[in-house]
Amino acid sequence: MQGVRPAMPTSLTLVVAAVILYLARDVFLPIAVALLLTFALAPVVAALRRIGLPRAFAVISTALITFTIIGIFSLVVALQVAELAKNLPAYQSNIVTKVKELKEAGAENGIIDRIGNVIERINREIDRPTTETPTGVEAPKRDPLLVEIYSRDNPIQVLTNIIAPLVGPVAMAGLVVVVVIFMLLEREDLRDRFIRLAGFGDLHRTTEGLQDAGTRVGHYLLMQLIVNTAYGLPVAVGLWFIGIPNAVLWGLLAIVLRFVPYIGPIIAMVLPLFLSVAVDSGWSMLLWTAGLFVAMELVINNVVEPMLYGSKTGLSPLAIIVSAIFWAWIWGPVGLILSTPLTVCLVVLGKYVPQFEFLQVLFGSDPVLAPHARLYQRLLAGDPDEATDQAEEILEDEYLVDYYRAVAIPALALAEQDRARGVMSDEQRLRVAASGLALVSNLEDIAIEESQDDELENEDEKGEAASQPIPDGEGMTILCVGGRGEIDDVSAAMLAQVLRAEGASATTLNFQEIEPANIRKLQTDAVDAIIVCFLNQDSIKHARFVVRRLKRVNTRARVGIVIWDSSADDAAGQRKPDTSKEQVPGADFVASDMTSAAIEALTKRPSLPLAPPGRTKARRRLVPQHAQ
C-alpha cells in the first residue's frame, strides 16, 4: 500500500519548520531543554519507582536534586568569573612583557616593524581627506564633539539595571523546571496522547520509535555527562597544580563545553592557555597547560569514550557538524549544546516515519547502500581500487568464498539485470567487466594466503555456509568459462580464484572461447572439470547446447553449469536448493551459488555420458521428386 502523500512538499515543510523554530525560539527552546532533561531523568525516576517510592516523591526528589546541582554549578561558575574579572588587571604587566619579547625576537628580521608600518600607513590613508583644501580657502569646520553628562543613579535604578538582564534567564530556568516536573509526572499519559495523534494506525512502529529515541538520547546524555566529568575534574586538578588561577572555573567550563561537538574542547583549552600566558612571566606554564589538555584528550578519546559508549548515537560525523551549525543559528549557544540530542531525535523520526526517511539517510551513520550495491556502484564507476578496499574490510572477518557468494555475485547480478533491461551501454558493460576483473586480480594475494593457511584444523570452517565441507582441490585441474558475456567472465574468474584458494589449479576462459566456431580448438585433455557460469536466469536453453558441445570435445571431464542466483540466501540465512539437473540434461552438476559450485567442482566423480538428444517428432525422410 502506498503511503499518504504529504500535503506540502518536503522541502517546503522543512523551510516552514525552520522559520517557525527561529521566530518562536523563546517558546520552543525551554520546551526542547525540558524534553531532553526528561529523557535523561526518566530512567532515574523509573529506578526509584521500582524500589517502591511513590511517583510524585520520585519525580520531585529527582528534579530537586538535579536542579540543585545545576544551580550550585552555575553559582560556582559565576563566582569564579567575578574573581577572574577582578584579578585581570594584575596580569597586564606580564602580557606587555611577553609582547615586548616577541617584538624583540622579530626585530632582527623586521617582521613586526613592517607589519606595524603597514597598519599605520593604512590608517593614515583612511583618515586622510578625499580632497585637499585650496590655498586661501577657509578650512571646513569640524563637527562638534558629543558630550554626555552623567548623573548619579539612585539605588532603585541601579538595582533595576542589575535585575533586568537576569529576568529572562531566570524565567526560562523556572519554566524548564516546571515543564520537566510535569513531563515526568505525566510521562505515560503524554506518551499515549502522542501515540494517538501520530501513530494510532501503527502502534508497534510508534512505540518502538519512542523507545528508540528515549534510549538513544538518554544514553547519550548520561554517557556524555560521565565522559565530560571524567575530563573536567582531572583538568581542574591539573590546572591547580600548574598554578592557573580559577582552576575550578576552567574544569567546570570544560564539562559544559564538551557537550558542544568538536569545537567545545578547543574553546575549553584556549581560555586557560591564554591565562597561562598572562600569569606566568616565562613560557613553562603555557607548555604544561597545553600538555595537560593534549594528554586528557588522548585519554578520553582513546580509552574512556570507547569503554563507556556501548552504543553510538547513530549520527555520522558530518551530520554532527552540520546539525551544530543549524541549531546554533536557530537557537544560539543553547542550540549548539543541544544540537546532537535534537538531531538524534530527527534521525529516529526518519527511521520510523516514511515521509521523513531522508533524515535518516542524510544524518544517520548506518550504510545506506547494501554491500553488494556499493560494490556494483564502484564497478559501474570504474573504480576497482575503492571496491578492493571495501572487499578487504569484509575479508578481515570472512573468507573469500563467503564474500563472493554474499557480495560480489549479487553485485554482478545487478549489472546483468541492467544489461538485460537495456539501461546499460556497451561502454558501461565493458567498464564493469574490466573493473570486476581488476578486483579479482587485486584479491589474488588473499586467495594465496587462504591456500597457504595451515592454522585451520578442518576445512568446514571455510564452508560454514554450506551443508557439507568444501573438498580439498589439491591435484585437480579445473577450467572456468563465462557463459554468454563479459560479466559472466568476471563471475567465472571469481569462481576460479575460490578454487585456487582451495588448492586446485583453476584457469579461466572468456565466453567467446566456447562459441561454436572456437569450441573445438579448446585444449581440455588434462582438465578434470569444466564449469560454465551464467548470470542470466534465462540461459537454461543456451546452457544445454554448451554442455553437449563440451561433452563432445572431452568425454572424460565433468561439465558443470552455474546459474548464479543472487537471492541464494534468504532472510533466515538458509540456502535455497540449487537448480535441478533435469533442466540441463547431460550436465554433471548444476549449481546456483559460490559454495555449492566449489563443492561440486572439487568432488571427484566420473563424468556422466552424453545422452542422445530427445526429440518430440520422428525425423521425416526426404523422398526424391522422381520417386513420387
UniProtKB/TrEMBL annotation:
The residue ranges flagged as biased composition, category Basic residues, are: 616-628
- What keywords tag this UniProt record? Cell membrane, Membrane, Transmembrane, Transmembrane helix, Transport
The reply on keyword Zinc is no
* Protein name as catalogued: AI-2E family transporter
- Which GO terms of the cellular component aspect does the record hold? plasma membrane
Query: Acidic residues composition bias: which ranges?
Result: 451-462
How is it placed in the membrane, per its record?
Multi-pass membrane protein
* Coiled-coil regions listed in the entry: none
Q: Where is this region: Disordered?
A: 451-472, 603-628
UniProt-annotated location(s)? Cell membrane
Query: What family is this protein classified in?
Result: Belongs to the autoinducer-2 exporter (AI-2E) (TC 2.A.86) family.
Tell me which Gene Ontology terms the entry assigns under biological process.
transmembrane transport
Against InterPro entries, the record matches this protein to:
AI-2E-like
